[in-house]
Design a protein that fits this description.
The structure is a homodimer.
Chain A (H helix, E strand, L loop, with lengths): L3 E6 L4 H10 L6 E6 L2 H8 L8 H17 L15 H9 L5 H13 L8 H10 L4 H8 L2 H16 L7 E4 L2 E4 L4 H8 L2
Parallel strand pairs in A: 1-2
Antiparallel strand pairs in A: 1-3, 3-4
Helix pairs in contact in A: 2-8, 4-7, 4-8
């Protein structure tokens, strides 16, 4: 029995944030973190993100606030939502393995708990400094063609598996889309 | 305290079917049934239904089957999905009040449990006969301009409340979208 779940995420998604918070409470399952560019994936599958429909956007804000209240997750809607998450997600790829966990925690919290404006380089630099990540090296590395290609490859790989949104859980090669479906992915592992 | 929940639905939606089955198990809350034409509402809010995106469609089928299994709801994906639900929803408006409950039960079950092809008039006629509804009168009434206008008005009224999908629950004037959010609507009434 495979006790692993693949977790496809983009820091830009509030539902990915909620899913992330929920999976960090689970200690008997290994989650493989699969960074993707959600905007890129949406283009590949021809889906308009809820962020770009005013009715869905308004609902998403209310919905996330309700879910977080029910799940006791500290949450603040980011006043700069949506932003381009390209640099954040490329950043996840270029930092050393041992820092990836703290990087996610830092940037997910900055964006979805502390209303940090992540379009400002100075804010990103400050967060990187807290993580003892050299920001000059970071900024140089995220601009490299190989980094751009890597994130594209990861996003394309998700697309090939017929993943069309985030968060998505994959358990036993089965796709479970949405933070609401974490329980279903966990159920799948019990089979 | 208002112990009422408005339930916006279209028989075409498998998630509306699931929500319908779940609310029929609740007996201490009054649900006001609000028929809408989901396709018409989607046009008003500029949303492409998941039925028209192959990735979302495939996921919806799997997802509904999983939810129904977990909720012990008898469910079969309709092999003629999607169809135009105009006649079914107009039909709900033209039948007498005392038959609306059985009409919904019959047509929801026919479409989402028994894989009935509801594009065939003979199948609709048979179901109406089971309900002792005169099908000639039914067919005449659903073609009337006032019936067409009535369904449009109901759909427009949902739109004016910023409802953008189905099922939607409205409790204390707050919108809860999706069968997953029934609990949230019930929580709202406890406030």
């Amino acid at each position: 029995m495979n006790k692993n779940i693949d977790f496809y995420f983009d820091i830009i998604s509030p539902y990915a944030f909620i899913a992330y918070k929920n999976i960090t409470k689970i200690d008997n399952i290994e989650f493989n973190f699969k960074p993707i560019l959600l905007g890129g994936l949406h283009n590949l599958v021809n889906i308009t993100a809820p962020a770009f429909n005013k009715f869905k956007l308004k609902n998403m804000k209310n919905d996330c606030e309700l879910i977080c209240k029910k799940n006791k997750i500290n949450f603040t809607w980011n006043s700069k939502f949506p932003i381009n998450s390209l640099y954040l997600m490329r950043g996840y790829l270029v930092i050393e393995e041992s820092k990836k966990k703290d990087y996610l925690e830092t940037f997910f919290n900055a964006y979805w708990q502390n209303d940090v404006d992540l379009t400002l380089e100075k804010n990103i630099i400050k967060l990187l400094e807290n993580l003892s990540i050299n920001h000059e090296e970071f900024l140089k590395n995220i601009s490299k063609q190989e980094t751009k290609d890597k994130l594209k490859t990861f996003t394309n790989e998700a697309f090939k598996k017929e993943i069309f949104g985030a968060p998505t859980f994959v358990a036993n090669n089965k796709i479970f889309w949405g933070q609401d479906r974490l329980d279903y992915a966990l159920d799948e592992l019990k089979k």
